[in-house]
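Think of the structure tokens as a kind of shorthand, similar to the way a musician reads notation: each symbol stands for something richer, in this case the local conformation of the backbone. In the example below we present two proteins back to back. Begin with the first one, reading the sequence and then the tokens, and try to describe in your own words what changes along the chain.
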Amino acid sequence: MELMQNVAKMQNSQMRMETSQNSTAQMQEHQVQAIQKAQVQQEQQTEQNQVQKIESQKEMSQLVKELNEAISPFRTSLKFGFDNTSEDFYVSVIESKTNRIVSRFPAEEAVSFLPKIQEVNGLLFDQKG
């Protein structure tokens, strides 16, 4: 009888430990999720701060020139152009041989991914050597 009581106490003790461990694991998981959420929000805020409004044809021409220079090492048949027929500027990805527009997006979006294109370009093609 005493043996059964000891076994029952041990089982209760084990269940309390498992419950405690589960609680600790859940708390840690919530903390990790909160940290990840904060990091994502910080990255989004940084990207929003980097977005600049393109307000002149001169700025748009400069942006398109930089985009075309950034993709030139890739030897692609794509080029960038812009559409100023509307109030807002749009950057277009154009297939060079046919002049067909492949994609079109707001200029501010292009401003944000230009550094990414340049980074990939730097990683793939050592521009120092």
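Once you have a description of the first chain, move to the second and do the same.
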Amino acid sequence: MPDLDPFDRSILRELAADGRLSNQSLAAKVGLSPSATLRRVQRLEATGAIRGYRAVLGPEATGVGFTAYIAVGLNDHTKHGQEAFERAVARSDEVRECHNITGTVEYLLRIEARDLADYKRFHTDVLGVLPQVARLTTYVVMGSPKDERG
């Protein structure tokens, strides 16, 4: 990762807010020439500071009506047990994020489902049958007054 100067940080901030900015608009916002801005963006992409661009989809377009976080405690704390759990959740479309965390549980998952019935099926038929899982605690999202995932 390169050392980031104020121009690089400004470029990253602007692209995080709107990844569809044209190079011309981005250059005007950060105070550089278009050619200098393009070189910097290409360097930031090549070094992994910018990992990609994507569309942020509305839940109504994807059929998501239910979001929850699940704290997952494992009964198998070995590397093999963790890797098996990670492989299983990687195959599940409902799991939008999987984080290995510290504390009283090993993982925190963000789940998106059509509705409560769809979530229950996932909870019972996917997570509930994994031999590594000892306990599950679900936190249902009732609203998201701030969400900067992009």
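Compare your description with these statements about the second chain. The chain has six helices and four strands.
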